[in-house]
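Dear support,

Our group has been running a series of protein-ligand predictions, and this particular one with XIL is the one our PI (initials K.S.) wants archived with full inputs and outputs. We had some confusion internally about which version of the output was final, so please treat the block below as the authoritative record. The input we submitted was:
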Amino acid sequence: MNIKRIGIILIIVLFIFGCKDEEEPEMPLAQSTVLLTVGNSKNLAAMLDARFNGKTITWSSSDSTKVTVSASGIITSNIISFTTAEGGSKKYTEGPARAEALVTAKTPDNKTQEFKVIATTEAQEKIMDLPPLKDRFPPGFLVGNIATGSSVSGTLSRHFNALTSENGMKPEKISNGRNTSTGVINYTWNNADSFVKSATDLNIKVIGHTLLWHSQIPQWQKDMANEPNKATALAAMKTYITDVVTHFKGKIYSWDVLNEAFPDGSSGIWKDKIRPENPWYKAIGSDFVYEGFLAARLADPDAILYYNDFNTDNSNRANLIRDMVKEVNDKYLALSADNKPAEEAAGRLLIEGIGMQEHHNFGVSAANIRTTLGKFKAIGVKVSVTELDVLAQSWSDYSSRNAVTNNGLLTQADLYRQYMAVYKDFADIIERITFWGVTDNQSWRSTGLPLLFDKDGKAKPAYYKFVGAIPTTW
Ligand code: XIL
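Confirmed final output from the archive:
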């Protein structure tokens, strides 16, 4: 095992009174807690700059045997075997690791501040004590999470301005039957309605997830796979979409109209690669994609329509998705204005966005995500990161149910940093980043501890690394 990596530790700098500033007694620095990660100079500089009201800071260490701090403000990551406050050298081979040191910071006008530095992999601050995550992004940028019930918690509303119902608006939860002789569809709106009202009352944007899928669908939709009459299936699909989108009209910011059309590992011509277990594809053929999006557009022209999928970092899948979205959009662009919503802007796309789910693990490289974003940008769509969670282990360790290690939490943290750094470079097309859960224990992949907060709602290294990678200017 690599001792260096094990030793890359999370740093927390607690501001304590060094010397009091007589002229500026109100300076917020003195009461602040600042958190940063080892080696993450941006994080450190950004946070300190805010508290020094924009002044540049230079650093010197009060004791170079305890921690190395460079003149540019970078605490280097060579705190591998770190001399603890109690003395002695401590190696972090198993977690959670923790040690302390003192650092003195000097401002350009020679004022000094003393910091207690705690290096640890332990989860730290509680979610409700942290500044709202949404405030770290520019106004209008959507930072989302999922709601598991039908009301919105204070935790969610503090940090997030967009919400997706984890399961509550999926076809199996919305609709429970269809009369085969009349074609009338039955709906169960209550829970979804309460969720939508609860979120919109708090000014939180609601993401509709999802209209067309092969999974979590009611029996009547599964039965559509065996519907011999294409026109009947097409009418049923259009009725379902029209009913649902109309029911929530004006309340949904964007709809994931179609979810996961392609099976894992597919490549080639998109029309031939749609998963056969999608009943709409089975009964209607690949036209169901265009027809489904068109029905959604006509039912609520204000909603942004998305195609949503997983493993979009895979280049073959990215190509399939791009080809499908482009072909559907080209067909829509050629449609006469008479068949589009009144007053629709010329040139408006039908599939305006691609949702990249981003359920990751150690095998997913940021470079591949970058390449995919480039492909999607080239066809003029927006992108949202719709379901972000990153296992703190490899896929094989997760599949074998091996325990997450201390080192895994640090690798996870660095992946969150790398991914955010890529999203930042595509800020012109990314409109939302949604995490698929808040605390690890509530995750659908809980054994892989994939989220920013631990089971006690405390921030993990992943939180600090992710936040540290958000640019201060967008
Ligand atoms: C997951 C939920 O998180 C689970 O609770 C449920 O059991 C299965 O579905 N892609 C999607 C999401 O689009 O709807 C899925 O959500 C995760 C994968």
